[in-house]
């Protein structure tokens, strides 16, 4: 079991090693309802959106975007 120091060390390490990744996705079919958008998005109609995501790895960034987009389609 992790104690408070271990958890704090893990969070500090994560913060130090966080990077920004650009994830490209198509989402012309999504209607945003005015909720919070957790990422920086650059998008022109008819082109893929460039979504800037803070994460430890590209895979993690893509999973975050896919989870968020799935929630927007629901």
Could you outline the blueprint of secondary structure elements for this entry?
Blueprint: H1 4-17, E1 19-25, E2 40-42, E3 49-55, H2 58-73
Antiparallel strand pairs: 1-3, 2-3
Shape: elongated
Q: How many DSSP H or I helices?
A: 2
How is the quaternary structure best described? single chain
Number of domains: 1
The overall pLDDT, averaged over residues, is: 88
Major sheet: 3 strands, antiparallel
Estimated radius of gyration: 15 Å
N→C terminal distance? 36 Å
Helix-strand pattern, N to C?
HEEEH
Strand order of the largest sheet: 1-3-2
Helix content: 40-55%
- Helix-strand category: alpha+beta
The beta-strand count equals: 3
Q: Which residue ranges are poorly predicted, with pLDDT under 50 across at least 5 consecutive positions?
A: none
Strand proportion, as a percent range, falls in 15-25%
Question: What can you see in these coordinates?
Answer:
The chain has 74 residues and is an alpha+beta fold. It has one domain (18-73). Helices cover 41% and strands 23% of the residues. The protein has two helices and three strands. It has helices spanning 4-17, 58-73, and strands at 19-25, 40-42, 49-55. A hairpin with a 6-residue loop joins strand 2 (40-42) and strand 3. The mean pLDDT is 88.
């Amino acid at each position: 079991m992790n104690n408070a120091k271990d958890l704090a060390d893990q969070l500090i390490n994560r913060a130090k090693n966080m990077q920004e990744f650009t994830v490209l996705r198509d989402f012309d079919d999504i209607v945003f309802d005015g909720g919070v958008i957790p990422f920086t998005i650059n998008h022109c109609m008819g082109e893929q959106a460039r979504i800037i995501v803070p994460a430890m790895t590209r895979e993690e960034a893509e999973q975050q975007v896919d989870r968020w987009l799935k929630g927007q389609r629901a």
